[in-house]
Amino acid sequence: MTFRTDRYRTFPAFPGFSFQIERMVAEGDQVAAYLVFDCEHKSGVIDGIAPAGKRLRFSLLMLLTISDGKIIEKRAHFDRMDIHRQLSGEP
């Protein structure tokens, strides 16, 4: 499964989102990528917050393990509270 196809499962509330790879580092079979996403909350309830078309910008750190040219393990870490604050307007 590629990131492109996996995104439809992972980000259904943000159709048409975009991202930039800010930094990528590889060593052996390990890859670390720092991505910044830009999107709009258009569908689906997230943390009890209904879609209101708010712009959202957040970063994600992705750790990948590669074997025979394929991703065999993927871990993605992001600040869920940052996303909640942006959508809810809470401090």
UniProtKB/TrEMBL annotation:
Pfam families: SnoaL (PF07366)
Domain of life of the organism encoding this protein: Bacteria
Xref: InterPro entries: Cyclase_SnoaL-like (IPR009959), NTF2-like_dom_sf (IPR032710)
GO biological process: polyketide metabolic process
PANTHER family given in the database record: ESTER CYCLASE, POLYKETIDE CYCLASE SNOAL-LIKE DOMAIN
UniProt protein name: Ester cyclase protein
Native source species: Ralstonia solanacearum (Pseudomonas solanacearum)
